[in-house]
Amino acid sequence: MLSEFPLFPDQASTLAAEVDHLYFFLCLVTLFFSTLIAGLLLFFAIRFRRRSEVELPQPVTGSAALETLWTVIPSLILVVIFFWSAKIYFSISRPPSDAMPIYVVGKQWMWKLQHLEGQREINELHIPINRAVRLIMSSEDVIHSFYVPAFRVKQDVLPGRYSTLWFKATRPGEYHLFCAEYCGTKHSGMIGKVVVMEPADFQNWLSGGSREESMQARGERLFQNYSCVNCHRSDGKGRGPALEGIFGKPVRLQTGQTIIADENYLRESILNPGLKVVQGYQPLMPMFQGLINEEGLAQILAYLKSLSPQVLEAADANTTKAPARPNERQNQKP
Ligand code: CUA
User: Fold this and answer.
1) Whose CA is nearest to atom 1 of ligand 1?
2) Taking the model in full, what pTM does it have?
3) In this predicted model, what pLDDT tens digit does every residue of 42-55 receive, in sequence order?
4) What span, in angstroms and rounded, lies between the C-alpha atoms of 172 and 100?
């Protein structure tokens, strides 16, 4: 009966139940105190009403015990809420290290999704059940927000940088995907669905359709077409630093500052390389701002990550069919 009158979206991810429990707790606390306060208000209004025209009110002296009680009890409840939500927040913001990466581009007014294996989708995302999925998202124009109510996750998708979102689906089925940030005339039409499949079905889906080139392979081609390969030589003797093994590692900059070579740093260093130059190198690299689109950037990024073995392992674990493994560059590594 409840399913015909859905007050709540399905609980279809590992996070869903946790979020709901906290939400119900907040509702209960709110309900309890609203009832208590409104009830007391009514009770006192009647109990202490003015009974005759000449009656004078008694002066109120206050009670330290009562004041302490109604300060301490709500404070304790708030502390519980704080730690409880912090715990959930941490699990939402920390994807497991073996999460399967999927690249998402939001644009007015559609979602474009790209799997490492090369499959591309529009307004539809196919994922396997019981596998952590990590979305790496950016926008081609304005701010959008990726929202899957059944998974209880929502994250803004921004122009100019990557934001991420992860979840692990626990029930097969189709779930709504919304844009949850007003982004223009057809914002309400920027919707789609997430299809959660059994692992075998997902493998079939992945290998079905036209044979797509993997993101790494596309990225590697871009890397050559844009002549990146001429300076970023794998032997480290090029005019730019070698890019093997750097992903996720600290990099020392000219300024003496150290920075982690994550997705956002690599992104910035492709689009506007002069901002954070690696120590020991000249700022010779041209800007690629406006020359590479979001999807191309994601492909180059997928390629660069594949040059870092520790990342490649994670990517491999995701698929029975190993992504096209780039190549001799890795073998040349000393
Ligand atoms: Cu995109 Cu609203």
Assistant:
1) 144
2) 0.76
3) 999 999 888 888 88
4) 17
Rounded to whole angstroms, the Cα distance separating 84 from 129 reads 27
Q: What is the DSSP string of 64-91?
A: HHHHHHHHHHHHHHHHHHHHHHHHHHHH
Strands 132-139, 100-107: pairing is parallel
Beta bridge mates, 10: none
The DSSP letter of residue 14 is: H
Looking at the DSSP bridge assignments, the partners of residue 102 are 115, 135
> At CA 326, angle to CA 217 and CA 262, rounded to 5?
85
* Residues 6 or more apart in contact with residue 174 via CB below 8 angstroms: 193, 194, 195, 196
With a 6 Å cutoff on the Cβ, whether 182 touches ligand 1 is yes
Q: Tell me how far the alpha carbon of residue 150 lies from the centroid of ligand 1, in angstroms.
A: 18
Span 294-325, pLDDT tens digits: 888 888 888 888 888 766 444 444 443 334 43
For residue 86, what pLDDT is reported?
A: 96
Q: How far is the CA of 102 from the centre of ligand 1 (A)?
A: 19
- Provide the CA 85 distance to its chain's centre, in angstroms: 17
